[in-house]
Design goal:
This protein has nine helices and eight strands. The chain is α/β, with parallel strands linked by helices.
Length: about 240
């Protein structure tokens, strides 16, 4: 039995948006990105974890909800869950023993041999591509785009099911040319089950204030329904499942 402790931010026993069906969602602590619109900045710092658990301890918690989630599953989110790839691997192995569907909600920035192994026990990857424009990506997230595209291409090469997520942030990720490029990049992929274009919202702003970090998008408003629809149409036109 492994003694490795995962560093956790929190659990949510009945999530409905992070994968199919009703899901037990675990938010792991730590992220290398610094997205300007992040709604979980309290997950950034690895050392700020609220609790630590071994994969067996976590599984005990999950199993209390098994009757509710057996048609949904379990999702590792964050922060960036693949920063703790060894823990994710151990935990997903236990999930598969229990016959639970597994999903990981990731920025795709962490890619190594342990991540590859963890993906063998992962049924679905929720891949959040922040921008296809390298300059915008760097400004918006403070990390390079290239490793994320490499990760996306790897998922395609192993035919791993993915849901693509893209947050539409006015002034940042709503340029028609960039949306078109992203849709064209994704269009040849045969493993995409769904593309979600999510409207930017400001619900995380209060957490930035609590952490005494100036919120960088103070003047940015959520996109209009028309803008959202226009963006979705670009992806639809490339045959992508919106
Ligand atoms: S990848 Fe997610 S958790 Fe990390 S900074 Fe971006 S939005 Fe926040």
């Amino acid at each position: 039995m492994s003694k490795l402790k995962g560093m956790l931010h929190s659990h949510e026993s009945c999530g409905t948006v992070d994968g199919p069906g009703l899901r037990y969602v675990i938010f792991l602590q730590g992220c290398r990105l610094r997205c300007k619109y992040c709604h979980n900045p309290d997950t950034w710092n690895h050392d700020d974890h609220k609790l630590t658990q071994t994969s067996e301890e976590l599984m005990k918690d999950v199993l209390r909800y098994k009757p509710y989630i057996q048609n949904g599953g379990v999702t590792l989110s964050g922060g960036e869950p693949l920063l703790q790839a060894t823990f994710a691997l151990e935990f997903f192995k236990l999930c598969k023993k229990e016959g639970l569907h597994t999903a990981v909600d990731t920025s795709g920035y962490i890619f190594n041999d342990t991540v590859k192994e963890a993906l063998e026990y992962t049924d679905l990857v929720l891949l959040d591509i922040k921008s296809i424009n390298p300059k915008t990506h760097l400004e918006l997230t403070e990390v390079e785009l290239a490793p994320i595209l490499e990760f996306a291409n790897y998922l395609q090469s192993i035919n791993k099911a993915i849901w693509i997520r893209h947050v539409l942030v006015p002034g940042w990720t709503d340029k028609e040319e960039d949306l078109q490029k992203l849709a064209e990049f994704l269009s040849p992929f045969t493993n995409i089950e769904k593309v979600e274009i999510l409207p930017y919202h400001r619900l995380g702003e209060v957490k930035w204030e609590q952490l005494n970090i100036p919120y960088p998008l103070k003047d940015t408003l959520p996109p209009s329904p028309e803008l959202l629809e226009k963006a979705k149409a670009i992806f639809r036109a490339q045959g992508l499942p919106i």
